[in-house]
Write a structure and sequence with these properties.
With 266 residues, this protein is α+β, with helices and mostly antiparallel strands. It has one domain. The chain is built from four helices and 13 strands. It has a four-stranded antiparallel beta sheet with strand order 1-6-3-4. A four-stranded antiparallel beta sheet has the order 8-13-10-11. It has a three-stranded antiparallel beta sheet with strand order 5-2-7. Strand 10 and strand 11 form a beta hairpin. Helix 2 packs antiparallel against helix 3. The chain starts with 10 loop residues before the first helix and ends with a strand. 27% of the residues are buried.
């Protein structure tokens, strides 16, 4: 091949020379530096002091409501079921992972009473990503069945203990709590999380049977346009497994009444 302008080939040695000089002048690559630190964004957490208040109420009142029941604290992803809570106990410089069972629950060890005042149970998830719930269950019940006395004790341990469940709690709430039993009152609609999305629910107590209205499930009475919708624990990812159980409707029913839940089919 003939070059149209042979003089232009003299540029090639100059280009190669410039590239060589640039390579020699380039500073050596520095090793990567790992920066230790932690985001200051608010994370989901509860104080150990609040959890111990739950434990105190449970131990004091279980003989009345659920003598054989066991207490757990339950955490569920509130906005995205793919979120992993990954809780840990923190105090001072101590970081101890907390094992959760298949339902997202953990027990409160009595030894936590010896922890310093700054002890917390913390998730890596940002604030607003978890729903916290007191979970009281009597062993031996059939699957998808809850006992009314267990649920009453859940309400007592939460509202009069650590108040873990997210909700709307204006000053009137605390005033009413001081003078009445909110867990038997029409002033609030307390509820619980089923282990699976719920299609229907029935309550039975001996020969007495009743079906829970659909409006008590899936948050049907609170539309997403309601300005309070985002302030309670069950919206978004947990809406289809939250069951409201208005306490004043069942005052004449025994502690051993059973709530049987019919799960949604996939």
């Amino acid at each position: 091949m003939l070059l149209r302008n042979p003089a232009s080939c003299t540029c090639l040695p100059l280009i190669l020379l410039a590239a060589t000089l640039a390579a020699r002048a380039a500073p050596p690559e520095l090793p990567p530096v790992e920066v230790q630190g932690e985001s200051t964004a608010a994370r989901e957490h509860k104080t150990v002091a609040d959890l111990l208040e739950v434990l105190d109420i449970f131990e004091r009142e279980k003989s009345r409501y659920a003598p054989d029941a066991e207490l757990r604290i339950r955490v569920l992803p509130r906005r995205d079921l793919a979120d992993a809570p990954a809780l840990e106990l923190r105090h001072g410089g101590v970081r101890e992972p907390i094992a959760l069972d298949a339902l997202g629950r953990f027990a409160i060890p009595p030894a936590w009473r010896q922890l310093p005042p700054d002890a917390i149970v913390r998730s890596r998830l940002l604030d607003g990503r978890l729903a916290w719930m007191v979970d009281v269950r009597t062993p031996g019940l059939p699957g998808h069945t809850r006992r009314l006395g267990d649920l009453r004790l859940e309400c007592r341990a939460d509202l009069y203990g650590g108040a873990l469940a997210r909700g709307v709690k204006p000053p009137a709430f605390y005033a009413a709590r001081a003078v009445t039993d909110l867990c038997t009152s029409s002033l609030i609609n307390y509820g619980f999380y089923a282990d699976q999305p719920v299609f229907a629910a029935q309550i039975g107590d001996g020969d007495r049977q009743a079906e829970l209205p659909y409006r008590w499930m899936h948050g049907s009475e609170m539309d997403q346009s309601n300005p309070l919708f985002g302030l309670v624990g069950w919206p978004f990812a947990l809406r289809d497994r939250f069951v409201v159980l208005p306490a004043d409707k069942w005052q004449g029913w025994s502690q051993d009444a059973r709530i049987e839940l019919e799960a949604m089919t996939p």
